[in-house]
Structures
1.
Amino acid sequence: MKKLEIIIKAEKLEQLKEILNQRGVHGMNLSNIMGCGNQKGNIRSTRKYDNSSINLIPKIKVETVIPDELSEDVINAVVDQIQTGNFGDGKIFVYDVEDAIRIRTGEHGSDAL
Ligand SMILES: Nc1ncnc2c1ncn2[C@@H]1O[C@H](COP(=O)(O)OP(=O)(O)OP(=O)(O)O)[C@@H](O)[C@H]1O
Ligand SMILES: [Mg+2]
């Protein structure tokens, strides 16, 4: 199993939910976060802001745990459909997940997803 941590702009959330739903991914958590990347929260290029302070801006973080075999397809779809080509399109962090347990039944692993 993989955990995907998908950080995007709020305006892309509906598209992201559709991407996940279309692939049978129904378990997810959403957080409203404050963050920044290489531009330190400034809108233009990286280099110009080398000496600037950090400006955190609101983003959406969606975390979902999915079977290994879905991971590549979900990642490709997010990149294809969410990408605008502008700074701040977001990021996906990918983690290996050791186990998952559905408390109601005691099932383990991807059966528990
Ligand atoms: N290295 C990082 N570690 C943790 N979170 C990050 C990291 N980089 C980016 N993020 C999170 O992802 C959000 C979007 O980052 P962003 O897309 O601006 O990344 P970037 O590396 O600056 O890429 P780009 O140059 O396309 O803007 C940030 O607001 C922050 O919440
Ligand atoms: Mg950035």
2.
Amino acid sequence: MISNFPTPYSDELVYSVIARYAVHHGILSPKYLTQELFDNRNLTPTYDLPSHLDKLASYLPDYYDALRLINQHTLLPIYQPFQPKAVMIYAVQVLQGEQYQSVHTKLGKNASRIKSVNFFRFCPHCWQEQMEQYGEVYWKRSWQITGYEYCTKHASPLFVSSVPCNGLDRKFYVAHLNALKDSSQLKFNPQDLHHHIELAELIDELLTHSTYITVQNFSTLSNAYFNLLKDRDLLSGQKNVNYEKVRQLVVDYWGESFLQYYHLGDLRSENCWLKNICRKHRKAFSYLEHLILIRALVPTCSPIHTYQQYLDMAATAIEEQTIQVNVKPENNQIFSDDQIKWIQLIQELPVKSARQKNGALYARLYRSQKEWLLKINQTAVMAPLSPPKPRIDWNTRDRQFMKQLIKIRDELLEDIDSPQWTKKFLIKQLGHVSLIEKNWHFLPLTKTFLERYAESVDCYQIRRLTRTYIRQQTENKYYPPSVFLRLAGLSPQRLTPEARRFFDNIMGK
Ligand SMILES: [Zn+2]
């Protein structure tokens, strides 16, 4: 029975959570560790795409399941939007399960031009914050993604540690401040800095939205790109891509040295990535290739958004073709007027809305042609996906909270009867309790304010004594000490030394 398995921190790799478990329980032997957790002495630690996640989720509170761990604590989400659905279903199964099957090859990671990181990377400023908040540090997943070279929060390039992350020696390496000693900061060509920052932001956005995006198959992808290139006026003739123009756009936008940095600089050879991605897709491309191309094609819009938009259009076009096929009457039957009306309706609306629009028609068909109706409904237009949640701008939020807090405090200063101004009390006044509590680390100003201005027990007791004293004076009475304390809601035993001194003072002792 595993108890006290640590809850993952925000953006923490599953690998790092396991390493912390070992430290918390004083487990030194890697074999013993994997035996205890997974009933397997020979498990190789995988930092990016670990398996056994069903098992691991069972050690965590109920709201954790394998899918949540995959989406928030592994690197699978950077593959999700760019791999056919079938591959992703397989990958998720492997990560949930306990069979040893490498998904890396299936996802094309091993053959990719994009070099994955070999040593764990980190931001020392983030570590400092983690240390202050949690008393320990951990490996964040975004740091280990090629292309995420820069901590946008602290405006500083990441550091590369000397801690290997390929796990060949079957050890889980815990994040530790000692790693600072043998680490070095990433260096870029200064003129490319803004692009590295931009790319890190795009990867953040990708991690947030990737689970909303599904690719049916490679032909949807090919169609999406074809339409995108066509809309950007990058075709010559009806069908051919004006490749030279595309190349120029990419080079103009990102610059050659930036592309070289990621081994994406070859844009001329017949089989280069850029030419292939503009052709019919036969294999998956990496998140970096997609992001870099789409950003250059539509610089004014979020590439994830553009990508999803063109993917949806391509998927709808394929659905429409299916409808055309299904609409043909079987056995040369002729459709009734009602049937034709219904078909027209569901080519424009999802079934539910179509029903709302013409309930009588639906009811007639349901009574007379139920089987046909249910079948044809499967070809209806899909309800649009709910738009991805907007990203919270934490800096703005932080400042807003801070301003509200100053106002709240000013009001409270007038109100001598208010309850103790604990952190919790102040957060409640802001009205976003769980948002704030769950996102402490994004709200440094709010946190500092609360730490500085939350009322200590000393101050609160002194305020209550003052309140009673004022009452005594206005009523022009004198209360003996025991009555005075009772009126103040305090007992002599619970008075803090500081409040005791204050009390003695006003009692004239
Ligand atoms: Zn940082």
